[in-house]
């Protein structure tokens, strides 16, 4: 098959513009930045909406569960945050291996490999879902060991068993999304996600409140939402909307799975470490001696708000991953590097705006989440830590997206272990417990972990030899493409 670069953007003569005597260097760079920004927002805009809509599925379920009773609400929160979050985070991480492989293959013009990669990922993620299932089955005892009350652990255990079908929906959904994302088909994903959210809101009202199915209704509607997401995206692909990239089911999907597993596991560890880091931070807050309940409530509110805001840099993470992988696969290292710079500056600017909004409304925004004056005062007290977290989170996901696009997952996994667990958790425990700084000490430790990781990733990213990375990307595409060759490439 012809390996000439096949990209979704027309060639633009940036080198000619930069070298033209009629155009000043500053104007040429500005023009190039505007072009890159246009490409970036074409991907990032729908990606942000996708992240918000799919995050909204969990938020809607928790909102309707709040109309039941306090135990059910806590059970859903624990089920989604701890149990479902483990499966969601690990499978999403494993699926992100496709961001590297599909993105670089698309940039190199190896379209036929995209469908094979997706099918391989389906196989691996579904097997992983089977292996993770016991965590859902024994969620009750696990939560009890983590210090939750017997009542909450028991109800959350039932809820976790009911949402096991959702775990397997993740196994199909994440590879499909990376497959479409690598081809810049993000707008259709946004529309599908929006439709699923609207349907989910209606079904949640119907099943949880109108029919009175309670927690079982909440689990059913969440399962339906994620499987509907999978089915609608599959219909789009099977209808012929991805010519060349999807050529049907193939036995080649079962070939060379061991190498694919290595990259998938490295991707999962890289992305899961951050989620587990934040989860352990919340557990540390819950074990404080004084005002633990008050501080957990305040922390939950701040992290909930940060959870909505971080969907913006997550959208940029997806966009820069596509841009970097496509450009490296196409052999354009300068374009990949320039895209990194533009994306970091754009996301950082938006992060600063959110930070200023939090700081200026620190005594007002808590009203949106609670009516308890003590909780409101505690949220206002730690709002400065939230503002700093938002700034760091505006850059960190983008750098992670660069790492995924370039295929650095294994390296970043080691960086995350050192920064999050050696620096972050250690300092959080020492400041929170040893020096009795409470929630401020624990959150300060979390920030130190984020800062350490961001500094190291920034150094790695901006000292990278992008010419070498482009060469490695093309070698990777060639190696994986050869591994998929067979005397007869029969479809199933």
TrEMBL record:
GO molecular function: antiporter activity; xenobiotic transmembrane transporter activity
Subcellular location: Membrane
Membrane topology: Multi-pass membrane protein
Gene Ontology CC annotation, any one: membrane
Transmembrane segments: 40-61, 73-91, 122-143, 155-174, 186-206, 212-239, 260-288, 308-326, 338-359, 379-399, 411-433, 439-462
InterPro entries: MATE_euk, MATE_fam
One Gene Ontology term from the biological process aspect of the record: xenobiotic detoxification by transmembrane export across the plasma membrane
Superkingdom of origin organism: Eukaryota
Keyword terms, alphabetized: Membrane, Transmembrane, Transmembrane helix
Family label: Belongs to the multi antimicrobial extrusion (MATE) (TC 2.A.66.1) family.
NCBIfam families xrefs: matE
Protein name in the entry: Protein DETOXIFICATION
The organism of origin for this protein: Aristolochia fimbriata (White veined hardy Dutchman's pipe vine)
Lineage start: Eukaryota, Viridiplantae, Streptophyta, Embryophyta, Tracheophyta
């Amino acid at each position: 098959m012809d390996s000439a670069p096949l990209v979704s953007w027309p060639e633009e003569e940036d080198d000619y513009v930069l070298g033209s005597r009629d155009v000043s260097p500053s104007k040429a760079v500005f023009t190039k930045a505007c072009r890159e920004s246009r490409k970036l927002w074409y991907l990032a805009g729908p990606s942000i909406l996708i992240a918000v809509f799919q995050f909204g599925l969990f938020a809607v379920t928790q909102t309707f569960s709040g109309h039941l009773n306090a135990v059910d609400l806590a059970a859903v929160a624990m089920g989604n945050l701890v149990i479902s979050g483990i499966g969601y985070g690990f499978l999403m991480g494993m699926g992100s291996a496709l961001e590297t492989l599909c993105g670089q293959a698309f940039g190199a013009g190896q379209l036929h490999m995209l469908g094979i990669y997706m099918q391989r990922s389906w196989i691996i993620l579904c097997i992983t879902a089977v292996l993770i299932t016991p965590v859902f089955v024994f969620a009750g005892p696990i939560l009890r060991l983590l210090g939750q009350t017997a009542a909450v652990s028991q109800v959350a255990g039932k809820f976790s068993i009911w949402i096991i079908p959702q775990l397997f929906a993740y196994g199909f959904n994440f590879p499909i999304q990376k497959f479409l994302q690598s081809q810049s088909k993000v707008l259709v994903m946004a529309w599908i996600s929006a439709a699923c959210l609207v349907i989910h809101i209606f079904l949640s009202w119907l099943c949880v409140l109108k029919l009175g199915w309670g927690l079982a209704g909440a689990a059913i509607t969440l399962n339906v939402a994620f499987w509907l997401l999978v089915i609608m995206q599959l219909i789009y692909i099977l209808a012929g909307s991805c010519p060349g990239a999807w050529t049907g089911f193939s036995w080649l999907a079962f070939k060379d799975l061991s190498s694919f597993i290595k990259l998938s596991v490295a991707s999962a560890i890289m992305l899961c470490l951050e989620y587990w880091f934040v989860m352990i931070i919340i557990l540390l807050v819950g074990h404080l001696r004084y005002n633990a309940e008050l501080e957990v409530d305040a922390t939950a509110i701040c992290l909930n708000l940060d959870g909505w805001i971080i969907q913006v840099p997550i959208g940029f993470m997806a966009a820069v991953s596509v841009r970097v992988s496509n450009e490296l696969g196409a052999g354009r290292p300068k374009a990949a590097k320039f895209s990194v710079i533009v994306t970091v500056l754009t996301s950082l600017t938006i992060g600063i705006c959110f930070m200023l909004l939090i700081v200026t409304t620190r005594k007002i925004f808590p009203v949106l989440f609670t009516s308890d004056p003590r909780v409101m005062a505690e949220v206002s007290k730690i709002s400065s830590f939230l503002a700093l977290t938002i700034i760091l989170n505006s850059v960190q996901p983008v750098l992670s997206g660069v790492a995924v696009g370039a295929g650095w997952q294994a390296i970043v996994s080691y960086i995350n272990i050192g920064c999050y667990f050696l620096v972050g958790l250690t300092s959080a425990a020492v400041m929170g417990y040893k020096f009795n700084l409470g929630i401020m000490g624990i959150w300060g430790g979390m920030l130190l972990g984020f800062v350490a990781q961001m500094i190291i990733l920034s150094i790695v990213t901006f000292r990278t030899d992008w010419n070498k990375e482009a060469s490695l990307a093309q070698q990777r595409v060639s190696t994986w493409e050869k591994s998929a060759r067979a005397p007869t490439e029969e479809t199933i």
